[in-house]
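re: ur question from the group chat, yeah i did fold both. here u go
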Amino acid sequence: MTGVRRSGLPTSAVRELEQTARRTLVRHVGLALCAVAVLAVAVLLSTRLGARPTSYFASGGGGVIVLDLSTSVEPAKYRRIQRVLRSLAQTSTRVGLVVFSDDAYEMLTPGTRGDELRPLLLFFEPPPASPIVRRSGRSRGGSQELPSFGRANPWTGTFRGGTKISVGLGEARRVIERDGIEPAVLLISDLDDSALDTERLTQELIRYEADGIDLRVVPLFAFNEDRDLFEQLVGEEAFVQNRELLGNTAIEERQTLVGSFPAALVAAAAALLALLALNERFCGRVSWRRA
């Protein structure tokens, strides 16, 4: 496509029009600089949009989920596990998954798309009538009858012991060190930790702080004494509160991002369009030729 060249009007008043030409040139350069500046702001804002998978991981990205599958996790707690896993699956957050009771293993490697968690949701469907299994003693003493998981699952024959949170957190830390990923861990547990694990858990949390690993905790209706102990170790700010939990899980099935309307980006785009319009309106090239 060839350009269209406009011919100048013949005139003998060249000197009189030179001032107008300079003024037009200054306006043109000024608007061009403003447009470039607004474009740069728009690009910057686009990289800082409030859209994020969920707020479980402080970085707004992914991390490692550490999931408690000990026998103290009862049907009422399955629903909360489902809430968290489903929100991560719907937003395709990149995660790793470590499961544990008195032992731990890596179920999903870091960087796995969150939708790979969907097959696990079936195992956390509360059964209509929960069968009862007897566990020999609660973590802190005594015996208790607890419901089993509603469906047969791969970990039924493996995780039959008590809860040792330190082994789950330790496995997640080693995964982070091995893969060099974002140091963020989401612990999903009822915090009913074995009394024999308290010292090891404390040492593990000290390692977390030293290594700069951000830890968030989703408590599965923890007993007050269990939650109080954990709050002393990690602080109340580490806990995912009910309001945040509901906000993260109130996601439509087809929704892929949780975020506010990018008002600043829209305003920058509108300003850029306005500058281009002003340039076209007021900065047409002044040209002439001698008579």
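okk and heres the other one u asked abt
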Amino acid sequence: MLNTILAPIEWLVAWIMYGWHQLFTGLGLPSGSGWTWALSIVGLVVVMRAAMIPLFVKQIHASRRMQLIQPEIQKIQAKYKGKSDPESRQAMTQETMDVYKRTGTNPFSSCLPILVQSPFFFGLFRVLNGLTAISKGPHVNGGRGPIGPITQVVAHQAEQSTIFGAHLSDIFLHATTTSARVVTVLLIIAMSVSTFTTQRQLMMKNMPASALDNPFAKQQKVLLYIMPVFFAISGINFPIGVLIYWSVTNVWSMLQQFYVIRRMPTPGSPAERALRERQQRRGRTMKELTIEGLNADTGVDGTSATDRVNRQRQQPKSKKRQKGKPATRPTEPPDPAGDGSTSA
């Protein structure tokens, strides 16, 4: 089942790598060089990430919307805090979904780039991991047929190519040379550092103070230091070619995020204040981000979205429609006799 699902992805990955390899070979690089194949993997990253730019833009807007509606979400969570009965949990979920629907926010949009990229990551892993089997040919025990343009001859060439004495298919746990282990460790360090830098940049510069003071943000801070350890543990099981792909895509994410934080920061974040100051020095007016039902400064001044919407929807009432107030009558003169009679 998994082979059937990943087969088209493997085929596409193989063609993209082979296309870049042919381009670099045409530019004069040796076809059997490990650097030519490494650059082909970099080209694969460029194609994949460029194709995902529309999804990344959607992720940016989703993330900013999620930040803006956090005060409303926190208000709902506080309302049902300590209530674990099914009715309360269902009501909290319903109110949360109503906020998402009213503001046009999709909490899953921020996960789209990762979900889309994951099959190609595994596809590359299978292509690089299968180079040895493809180079043997389908008629040899342990061998397999070609993947798109990665024929037996091309696979053998890619399998024999090296970078600093390390093959692209070398794995740290099964490496037979010191150079392969050293290259693997360096790539794991580069991958971990780039991931840490990207996440730290996001939390320190592009998140308002209100968003940092909640359980989710505290979990993110813990993950900030756990993720490099996770990459170090998992990285020793991946081929060098996959580590190159992972490191390059992390660097792409870091640079792309740096551009976004500088040009389109989250409202209320330190990056937004820095952008506002730059715009003021240039004599420009900064365009505010608004969401239907929310103002751009939601979460900064502490006013919840519900209060804002209620104030916007409240209509003035006439005196005749106001309840709880007696109708006004003409004032009668005081009774001088005190017996309830009135003077003629």
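fwiw on the second one: The beta strands are 162-163, 166-167. The chain has a mean pLDDT of 77. idk if thats what u expected
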